[in-house]
Amino acid sequence: MMKVSKVLHVHPRAESLRIREKLIKHYRLGVVALAGLIAHGRGEAFDYLIGEKTMKSTFKAIKAAASAMLQAKYPVISVNGNTAALVANDLVKLAEVTNAKIEVNLFYRSLERELAIKRILEAAGAREVLGVGEAASAQIPEVCSERRRVDPQGILRADVVLVPLEDGDRTQALRKMGKIVIAIDLNPLSRTAQYASITIIDNVIRALPALVREAEKMRNEETEKLREILSEFNNREVLANAIKHINLRLSELAQKGFHIFEDNETS
Ligand code: ATP
Ligand code: MG
Q1: Quick check: CB of 203 below 6 Å from ligand 1?
Q2: Of 86, 115, 187, 247, which one is least surrounded by beta carbons within 10 A?
Q3: Dist CA 220 CA 213 (whole Å)
């Protein structure tokens, strides 16, 4: 018989439930859009399949991302409601370590939401937040959603853009503009994941702190070394490895049958 109390005690959903509560709270505060809650659910499903741990191959992408941001002339971090709610402190830390600008960019734009996100970022220590209100006066060609509005002092002139939780259309458009796009997305099959230059297939909750740690480690590296890391990076390989990881994990679980209860079963 399996011991249910033990199962609940080690239940991996505990952290996931805390994250949901955080998003709901920020939905009520006007930071997260209703559709942001649904987007999170799609991400969570992939986290379940991945095993809720950073994959080995993802560390390669994190290293390449840190190196791209440190080498950039004008790096910009694009922030939406979900990321502001979940990882505001790490976004601000990353901006400091890599000398990047922070810009609010939303699929569902409203001045109230932009200001609410700006406030969260400022409370986390951000000194400058771009893309709010009239500041987002430029447009990215071929993007139909409100995601097209950008700040001429931010994403428009950036050479490297970090887009945690992005939409596929804009990822493609930013690539067409010649920018290096770093995406964080739990779904290796999304258009964002597939079109980005560097795809970090992981939960933003784990990816952002890891990216900050990596950037801190690498900030004093020689430019030549940073260049090498980036030139050796292969995003196709990262995408393929993530799909293989899910495939292998599911195959193993399919052979075993139950997975949650395996340590708790007494035969
Ligand atoms: P695309 O537009 O790229 O084809 P999509 O339309 O399937 O993707 P969207 O609704 O545009 O998805 O964006 C949500 C994306 O964000 C999903 O791909 C989901 O996996 C990802 N996501 C949601 N929450 C997280 C999270 N906490 N960490 C990382 N990724 C997440
Ligand atoms: Mg989409």
Answers
A1: yes
A2: 247
A3: 13
Which of these, 33, 11, 120, 129, lies nearest to 77 by C-alpha position?
129
Query: Looking only at Cα atoms, what is the longest distance across the chain?
Result: 66
192 lines ligand 1 (CB under 6 A): yes
The pLDDT tens digits for 230-260 are: 999 999 999 999 999 999 999 999 988 776 6
Q: 198 and 51 in contact (C-beta within 8 Å)? A: no
State the pTM of this model: 0.93
3-state helix, strand, coil in the chain (%, to 5): 60, 10, 30
Is the CB of residue 195 below 6 angstroms from any atom belonging to ligand 1?
A: no
Distance CA 232, CA 227 (A): 9
Q: Which amino acid is at 166?
A: E
Report all structural domains of the chain as residue ranges with CATH numbers, in order of start.
56-241 (3.40.50.12640)
101 contact partners, CB below 8 Å, separation of at least 6: 74, 75, 76, 77, 95, 128, 130, 153, 154, 158
